[in-house]
Design a protein that fits this description.
Layout (H helix, E strand, L loop, with lengths): L4 E7 L2 E8 L9 E4 L9 H5 L6 E5 L7 E2 L8 H14 L5 E6 L1 H12 L4 E7 L10 H18 L1 H12 L33 H11 L5 H6 L3 E7 L6 H12 L5 E3 L17 H15 L1
Length: 290
Protein backbone atom coordinates (compact mmCIF):
# COMPACT_ATOMS: atom_id res chain seq x y z
CA UNK A 1 0.00 0.00 0.00
CA UNK A 2 1.19 3.50 -0.79
CA UNK A 3 2.34 5.83 1.97
CA UNK A 4 -0.54 8.04 3.14
CA UNK A 5 -0.62 11.61 1.91
CA UNK A 6 -1.82 13.97 4.63
CA UNK A 7 -3.82 17.12 3.88
CA UNK A 8 -6.12 19.56 5.65
CA UNK A 9 -9.56 20.81 4.73
CA UNK A 10 -11.29 23.90 6.07
CA UNK A 11 -14.97 23.37 6.83
CA UNK A 12 -17.40 25.55 8.79
CA UNK A 13 -16.02 26.00 12.34
CA UNK A 14 -13.25 23.39 11.96
CA UNK A 15 -10.10 22.38 10.10
CA UNK A 16 -10.00 18.66 9.30
CA UNK A 17 -6.88 16.58 8.78
CA UNK A 18 -7.19 13.54 6.53
CA UNK A 19 -5.00 10.89 4.90
CA UNK A 20 -5.27 9.37 1.45
CA UNK A 21 -3.73 6.01 0.54
CA UNK A 22 -4.11 6.15 -3.22
CA UNK A 23 -4.40 3.19 -5.57
CA UNK A 24 -4.20 4.30 -9.19
CA UNK A 25 -5.20 0.86 -10.47
CA UNK A 26 -8.53 0.73 -8.66
CA UNK A 27 -11.70 1.28 -10.64
CA UNK A 28 -13.73 1.23 -7.44
CA UNK A 29 -15.00 4.30 -5.58
CA UNK A 30 -12.97 5.85 -2.79
CA UNK A 31 -13.29 3.87 0.46
CA UNK A 32 -13.70 5.96 3.61
CA UNK A 33 -12.87 4.31 6.95
CA UNK A 34 -14.26 6.43 9.78
CA UNK A 35 -15.07 6.45 13.46
CA UNK A 36 -16.04 8.98 16.10
CA UNK A 37 -14.31 10.01 18.20
CA UNK A 38 -11.77 7.49 16.88
CA UNK A 39 -9.52 9.19 14.37
CA UNK A 40 -7.40 8.03 11.46
CA UNK A 41 -4.87 6.35 13.76
CA UNK A 42 -7.42 3.64 14.56
CA UNK A 43 -7.73 2.45 10.96
CA UNK A 44 -4.15 1.75 9.88
CA UNK A 45 -4.48 -2.02 10.09
CA UNK A 46 -7.85 -2.15 8.34
CA UNK A 47 -6.62 0.17 5.58
CA UNK A 48 -3.65 -2.12 4.94
CA UNK A 49 -6.04 -4.87 3.85
CA UNK A 50 -7.34 -2.76 0.95
CA UNK A 51 -4.22 -2.01 -1.13
CA UNK A 52 -6.37 -2.22 -4.27
CA UNK A 53 -8.61 0.65 -3.16
CA UNK A 54 -7.99 4.35 -2.62
CA UNK A 55 -8.57 4.59 1.12
CA UNK A 56 -9.33 7.79 3.01
CA UNK A 57 -9.16 8.15 6.79
CA UNK A 58 -9.62 11.32 8.83
CA UNK A 59 -9.72 12.83 12.29
CA UNK A 60 -13.21 14.11 13.12
CA UNK A 61 -13.53 17.72 14.21
CA UNK A 62 -11.94 18.30 17.61
CA UNK A 63 -10.10 14.95 17.52
CA UNK A 64 -6.31 14.43 17.34
CA UNK A 65 -5.04 16.54 14.39
CA UNK A 66 -8.39 18.16 13.50
CA UNK A 67 -9.28 21.30 15.40
CA UNK A 68 -12.37 23.31 16.13
CA UNK A 69 -12.17 26.97 15.20
CA UNK A 70 -15.23 28.26 17.02
CA UNK A 71 -14.54 26.93 20.53
CA UNK A 72 -17.75 24.88 20.56
CA UNK A 73 -18.10 22.46 23.46
CA UNK A 74 -20.26 20.02 21.49
CA UNK A 75 -20.28 18.58 17.99
CA UNK A 76 -23.39 17.02 16.46
CA UNK A 77 -23.84 14.13 14.02
CA UNK A 78 -25.25 16.61 11.50
CA UNK A 79 -22.05 18.66 11.69
CA UNK A 80 -19.95 15.52 11.27
CA UNK A 81 -22.15 14.49 8.32
CA UNK A 82 -21.55 17.81 6.59
CA UNK A 83 -17.81 17.45 7.26
CA UNK A 84 -17.87 14.04 5.59
CA UNK A 85 -19.76 15.46 2.64
CA UNK A 86 -17.10 18.14 2.18
CA UNK A 87 -14.38 15.50 2.53
CA UNK A 88 -15.90 13.24 -0.15
CA UNK A 89 -16.08 16.20 -2.50
CA UNK A 90 -12.49 17.16 -1.71
CA UNK A 91 -11.03 13.72 -2.44
CA UNK A 92 -12.70 13.38 -5.81
CA UNK A 93 -16.44 13.54 -5.45
CA UNK A 94 -18.63 10.88 -6.94
CA UNK A 95 -20.10 8.13 -4.81
CA UNK A 96 -17.86 6.77 -2.07
CA UNK A 97 -18.04 3.53 -0.14
CA UNK A 98 -18.00 4.10 3.61
CA UNK A 99 -17.14 1.82 6.51
CA UNK A 100 -18.15 3.60 9.71
CA UNK A 101 -17.86 2.30 13.24
CA UNK A 102 -19.43 3.32 16.56
CA UNK A 103 -20.20 7.05 16.70
CA UNK A 104 -18.87 7.25 13.16
CA UNK A 105 -21.72 4.95 12.11
CA UNK A 106 -24.27 7.40 13.52
CA UNK A 107 -22.53 10.24 11.67
CA UNK A 108 -22.46 8.23 8.44
CA UNK A 109 -26.16 7.41 8.71
CA UNK A 110 -26.74 11.15 9.05
CA UNK A 111 -24.54 11.66 5.97
CA UNK A 112 -26.64 9.25 3.90
CA UNK A 113 -29.88 10.88 5.06
CA UNK A 114 -28.60 14.36 4.12
CA UNK A 115 -26.37 13.60 1.12
CA UNK A 116 -27.46 10.21 -0.30
CA UNK A 117 -25.98 10.83 -3.73
CA UNK A 118 -22.46 10.80 -2.25
CA UNK A 119 -22.48 7.27 -0.82
CA UNK A 120 -22.73 4.06 -2.84
CA UNK A 121 -22.48 1.61 0.06
CA UNK A 122 -22.45 2.30 3.79
CA UNK A 123 -21.43 -0.39 6.24
CA UNK A 124 -22.55 1.00 9.61
CA UNK A 125 -20.81 -1.00 12.33
CA UNK A 126 -22.46 -0.96 15.76
CA UNK A 127 -23.96 2.56 15.89
CA UNK A 128 -24.83 3.53 19.50
CA UNK A 129 -28.28 4.67 18.39
CA UNK A 130 -29.97 4.92 21.77
CA UNK A 131 -33.32 6.27 20.59
CA UNK A 132 -34.19 3.09 18.67
CA UNK A 133 -33.81 0.85 21.72
CA UNK A 134 -36.73 -0.34 23.85
CA UNK A 135 -34.86 0.74 27.00
CA UNK A 136 -33.99 4.15 25.54
CA UNK A 137 -34.91 6.10 28.68
CA UNK A 138 -32.63 4.00 30.87
CA UNK A 139 -29.81 4.18 28.31
CA UNK A 140 -30.06 7.96 28.02
CA UNK A 141 -30.09 8.27 31.82
CA UNK A 142 -26.82 6.33 31.97
CA UNK A 143 -25.30 8.47 29.21
CA UNK A 144 -26.26 11.65 31.08
CA UNK A 145 -24.78 10.24 34.28
CA UNK A 146 -21.47 9.46 32.53
CA UNK A 147 -21.31 12.97 31.06
CA UNK A 148 -22.18 14.59 34.39
CA UNK A 149 -19.57 12.46 36.20
CA UNK A 150 -16.95 13.61 33.72
CA UNK A 151 -17.92 17.26 34.13
CA UNK A 152 -17.94 16.93 37.90
CA UNK A 153 -14.98 14.64 38.57
CA UNK A 154 -12.83 14.45 35.43
CA UNK A 155 -11.64 11.89 32.92
CA UNK A 156 -10.90 8.88 35.14
CA UNK A 157 -14.27 8.52 36.86
CA UNK A 158 -16.20 9.42 33.70
CA UNK A 159 -14.30 7.03 31.45
CA UNK A 160 -14.50 4.22 34.01
CA UNK A 161 -18.29 4.49 33.94
CA UNK A 162 -18.23 4.63 30.14
CA UNK A 163 -16.12 1.47 29.80
CA UNK A 164 -18.31 -0.40 32.27
CA UNK A 165 -21.46 0.65 30.43
CA UNK A 166 -20.35 -0.19 26.89
CA UNK A 167 -19.37 -3.65 28.15
CA UNK A 168 -22.76 -4.22 29.80
CA UNK A 169 -24.92 -6.79 27.98
CA UNK A 170 -28.71 -6.75 28.02
CA UNK A 171 -31.40 -4.18 28.53
CA UNK A 172 -30.43 -1.56 31.07
CA UNK A 173 -32.27 -1.86 34.41
CA UNK A 174 -33.89 1.15 36.06
CA UNK A 175 -31.43 1.06 38.97
CA UNK A 176 -28.25 0.96 36.85
CA UNK A 177 -27.07 4.45 37.86
CA UNK A 178 -27.60 3.59 41.54
CA UNK A 179 -24.92 0.93 41.43
CA UNK A 180 -21.45 1.59 42.92
CA UNK A 181 -19.21 3.48 40.51
CA UNK A 182 -16.27 1.51 39.07
CA UNK A 183 -12.77 2.36 40.26
CA UNK A 184 -10.83 4.18 37.49
CA UNK A 185 -7.65 2.39 38.61
CA UNK A 186 -9.21 -0.92 37.54
CA UNK A 187 -8.95 0.30 33.94
CA UNK A 188 -5.56 2.00 34.29
CA UNK A 189 -7.23 5.40 34.30
CA UNK A 190 -6.14 8.44 36.33
CA UNK A 191 -7.71 8.75 39.75
CA UNK A 192 -6.85 12.43 40.15
CA UNK A 193 -8.75 15.19 38.33
CA UNK A 194 -6.37 17.33 36.27
CA UNK A 195 -9.08 19.92 35.70
CA UNK A 196 -9.27 19.50 31.92
CA UNK A 197 -12.64 19.01 30.25
CA UNK A 198 -11.62 18.70 26.60
CA UNK A 199 -12.13 14.98 26.01
CA UNK A 200 -13.70 14.47 22.58
CA UNK A 201 -15.72 11.44 23.64
CA UNK A 202 -17.06 12.36 27.07
CA UNK A 203 -17.33 16.09 26.54
CA UNK A 204 -17.80 16.81 22.85
CA UNK A 205 -19.74 13.91 21.31
CA UNK A 206 -21.32 11.62 23.90
CA UNK A 207 -24.62 13.41 24.50
CA UNK A 208 -25.26 14.58 20.94
CA UNK A 209 -24.50 11.15 19.45
CA UNK A 210 -26.68 9.15 21.85
CA UNK A 211 -29.59 11.57 21.52
CA UNK A 212 -29.45 11.78 17.72
CA UNK A 213 -32.74 10.98 15.97
CA UNK A 214 -32.06 9.13 12.73
CA UNK A 215 -34.17 10.09 9.70
CA UNK A 216 -35.47 6.66 8.75
CA UNK A 217 -37.73 7.99 6.01
CA UNK A 218 -34.73 9.56 4.27
CA UNK A 219 -32.59 6.47 4.85
CA UNK A 220 -35.21 4.13 3.38
CA UNK A 221 -35.53 6.40 0.34
CA UNK A 222 -31.80 6.73 -0.31
CA UNK A 223 -30.03 5.14 -3.30
CA UNK A 224 -27.30 4.02 -0.92
CA UNK A 225 -26.85 0.36 -0.07
CA UNK A 226 -27.04 0.50 3.73
CA UNK A 227 -25.65 -2.50 5.61
CA UNK A 228 -25.79 -2.64 9.41
CA UNK A 229 -22.99 -4.65 11.00
CA UNK A 230 -22.91 -6.23 14.47
CA UNK A 231 -19.99 -7.93 16.21
CA UNK A 232 -20.13 -11.66 16.91
CA UNK A 233 -18.56 -11.15 20.34
CA UNK A 234 -20.46 -8.05 21.48
CA UNK A 235 -23.97 -9.50 21.58
CA UNK A 236 -26.26 -7.66 23.95
CA UNK A 237 -24.18 -4.51 24.33
CA UNK A 238 -25.79 -1.17 23.62
CA UNK A 239 -24.04 -0.51 20.31
CA UNK A 240 -24.61 -4.06 19.09
CA UNK A 241 -28.30 -3.79 19.95
CA UNK A 242 -28.32 -0.45 18.15
CA UNK A 243 -27.14 -2.12 14.93
CA UNK A 244 -29.87 -4.75 15.15
CA UNK A 245 -32.56 -2.18 15.92
CA UNK A 246 -31.57 0.19 13.10
CA UNK A 247 -31.51 -2.72 10.65
CA UNK A 248 -34.99 -3.74 11.77
CA UNK A 249 -36.30 -0.20 11.28
CA UNK A 250 -34.85 -0.24 7.75
CA UNK A 251 -36.47 -3.59 6.98
CA UNK A 252 -33.18 -5.48 6.74
CA UNK A 253 -31.07 -7.77 8.92
CA UNK A 254 -27.71 -6.89 10.41
CA UNK A 255 -24.66 -8.71 9.06
CA UNK A 256 -22.53 -10.38 11.72
CA UNK A 257 -18.85 -9.40 11.61
CA UNK A 258 -15.97 -11.17 13.36
CA UNK A 259 -14.90 -10.18 16.87
CA UNK A 260 -16.45 -7.33 18.81
CA UNK A 261 -16.83 -3.56 18.76
CA UNK A 262 -13.15 -3.04 17.91
CA UNK A 263 -12.88 -6.08 15.70
CA UNK A 264 -10.89 -4.26 13.00
CA UNK A 265 -8.13 -3.11 15.36
CA UNK A 266 -4.70 -4.66 14.93
CA UNK A 267 -2.95 -3.30 17.99
CA UNK A 268 -4.05 0.31 17.74
CA UNK A 269 -4.62 1.73 21.24
CA UNK A 270 -3.31 -1.55 22.64
CA UNK A 271 -6.35 -3.45 21.38
CA UNK A 272 -6.55 -6.28 18.89
CA UNK A 273 -9.62 -7.83 17.34
CA UNK A 274 -9.59 -10.12 14.32
CA UNK A 275 -8.51 -7.66 11.62
CA UNK A 276 -7.77 -10.20 8.89
CA UNK A 277 -11.17 -11.89 9.20
CA UNK A 278 -12.87 -8.53 9.73
CA UNK A 279 -11.34 -7.08 6.55
CA UNK A 280 -12.31 -10.17 4.58
CA UNK A 281 -15.91 -9.82 5.74
CA UNK A 282 -15.93 -6.12 4.91
CA UNK A 283 -14.61 -6.83 1.41
CA UNK A 284 -17.27 -9.52 0.92
CA UNK A 285 -20.03 -7.13 1.98
CA UNK A 286 -18.75 -4.25 -0.16
CA UNK A 287 -18.42 -6.46 -3.23
CA UNK A 288 -21.85 -7.95 -2.67
CA UNK A 289 -23.52 -4.59 -2.10
CA UNK A 290 -21.67 -2.84 -4.90
Amino acid sequence: MTTPTTSTLEVPSAVLTYDVRRSEASGEPVLLLIGSPMGASGFGTLASHFPDRTVVTYDPRGVERSRLTDGAAESTPDEHADDLSHLITEVGGGRADVFASSGGAVNALALVAKHPAQVRTLVAHEPPAALVLPDREQVLAVIRDIHETYQRSGLGPGMAKFIAFVSFAGEVPDDYTDRPAPDPAMFGLPTEDDGSRNDALLGQNLISCAHYRLDFEALRGARTNIVLAAGAESTGTMANRGALAVAERLGTSAVIFPSGHGGFLGGEYGQRGEPEAFAAKLREVLEGAG
